[in-house]
Structures are given as structure tokens and as C-alpha cells.
Design goal:
113 residues, mainly beta, globular
């Protein structure tokens, strides 16, 4: 069973930075796409950033502040800068391989002074 394991997050001050990492384990194939979603309290889960092939997509709200990157076939990172209260959410790692979607368990990012 493929697992996506996230790390990073926590409490960050407004204007600060944080880094999220995610690694797929128990897989013998390369993830075709990897990225991040987030879900704030009372809101629907939304796409934050996604790497698929040579395509990179960002939510408008994070463009210029967040950067997604892949370390290797099955690891993805999210560098988050200039964080504000609206970025507070549970962040979920997403991976897709061989037509199957996988999700991490989620990691909390709270932006507060």
C-alpha cells in the first residue's frame, strides 16, 4: 500500500516562512503528479500547487509566495513565504501514479502571532 508521509508545518508568525515535505513510500513506480492541497476550517479542500510532467500550477492566492519542487521521483516539497492568516489550514500531500490518486494524512499550518 502506497503511503504519502508529510513533514513540516506547525505554528508560523505572519510574514514568516515554512517548508513542507512529502515522500511516497512502498512504491515501485514513479508518481506522474505530485502536489499539495489545503483545507481551512469550514472550507472545501483546494489545490495549492501541483507538478505534473513539465507542468506546474499554483493557486492564484499563493503565486509568487509558494514554490513547489520535487527532490526525486517520489518526493515533493512546498516552500511557503510571506505567510498570512489566510494560509492557515491542514495541508495534504497528493500523488498520482498508474491512474491512482493517493493522499497524505495532512499536516497543520497555523499562521498566527
Amino acid at each position: 500500500q502506497v503511503q504519502l508521509v508529510e513533514s513540516g508545518g506547525g505554528l508560523v508568525q505572519p510574514g514568516g516562512s515554512a517548508r513542507l515535505s512529502c515522500r511516497a513510500s512502498r512504491t515501485l513506480f514513479r508518481m506522474d503528479a505530485m502536489g499539495w492541497y489545503r483545507q481551512a476550517p469550514g472550507k472545501q479542500r483546494e489545490l495549492v500547487a501541483m507538478l505534473s510532467g513539465r507542468s506546474t500550477n499554483y493557486a492564484d492566492s499563493v503565486k509568487g509566495r509558494f514554490t513547489i519542487s520535487r527532490d526525486n521521483d517520489n518526493a515533493v516539497n512546498l516552500e511557503m513565504n510571506s505567510l498570512n492568516a489566510e494560509d492557515t489550514a491542514v495541508y495534504y500531500c497528493y500523488g498520482q501514479g498508474l491512474g491512482v490518486a493517493y493522499w497524505g494524512q495532512g499536516t497543520q499550518v497555523t499562521v498566527s502571532s
